[in-house]
Amino acid sequence: MLADDDDARLMVAVGRGDRAAFAALFDRHQAGVVRFCGRFVGNAARAEELAQDVFVKLYKAAGRYSADAKFKTFLYRVATNHCLNELRRFDEKRQQEAREMSEEQHETALDLEASTDSPQLSLEGKELERAVAAAMAAMSAREKAAFTMCRFEGMAYRDIAQALESTESAVKSLIHRATVTVMKHVEAWQQGVLPSRSLA
């Protein structure tokens, strides 16, 4: 077992039926999994539902967990597979509806921020957030997963490769393509062009 991975010890305990250990893992990682799922579906309520599903699957998979593997890698493998399956079930119409809902939410946030003491700074922050969100929407599912684990969860290439059941070189390629997509959208935002999927 990894000596420095307390989560791994807890997961082993979950495999033995320890519900308190599962509750501890849930408390530690629930927020991160919700964020991860949210970057896939662009909808906060659906992200919460997906995160709940991920932890249900995690609990059921506890007996198959190998204690010499990093818990976080195992967790995000479960989360990635679940989100990829979710995206496969989406048809184009549902994806478009989700993007439109996200845009409406951002517009509402912008209206509220405009009344603060620093409207320009707030506006720029929200616009940049929209640019990144648009870039995420333009990525492939695996690019999105690799980019999120790397840039937002701070995971190493090796761990991401294990989570995606891929190679480090393939992960580096995914992250490179995703980074280029983000750069294109941010540059478009800086030039006053509303980011769109056509920029990717």
CATH architecture of one domain: Orthogonal Bundle
Helix segment count?
9
- Count the beta strands: 0
Topology-level CATH name of one domain: Rna Polymerase Sigma Factor, Chain: A
Distance between the termini: 42 Å
Largest sheet: none
Percentage beta strand: under 5%
Radius of gyration: 18 Å
Question: Which regions are unreliable across 5 or more consecutive residues at pLDDT < 50?
Answer: 108-123, 195-200
- CATH H level of one domain: which superfamily? RNA polymerase sigma factor, region 2, helix turn helix motif
CATH class of one domain: Mainly Alpha
- Secondary-structure element string: HHHHHHHHH
Helicity level: over 70%
Shape: globular
The structure class reads mainly alpha
Mean pLDDT: 81
Short description:
The chain has 200 residues and is mostly helical.
Q: Care to describe what's here?
A:
The protein has 200 residues and is mostly helical. The chain has a domain at 1-89: Rna Polymerase Sigma Factor, Chain: A. It is built from nine helices and no strands. It is globular. The protein starts with 5 loop residues before the first helix and ends in a 10-residue tail after the last helix. The model is unreliable at 108-123 and 195-200 (pLDDT under 50).
What tags apply to this protein structure?
single chain, 200 residues, mainly alpha, Rna Polymerase Sigma Factor, Chain: A
Q: Topology of this structure?
A:
Blueprint: H1 6-15, H2 19-41, H3 44-61, H4 71-89, H5 92-113, H6 119-138, H7 141-152, H8 157-164, H9 168-190
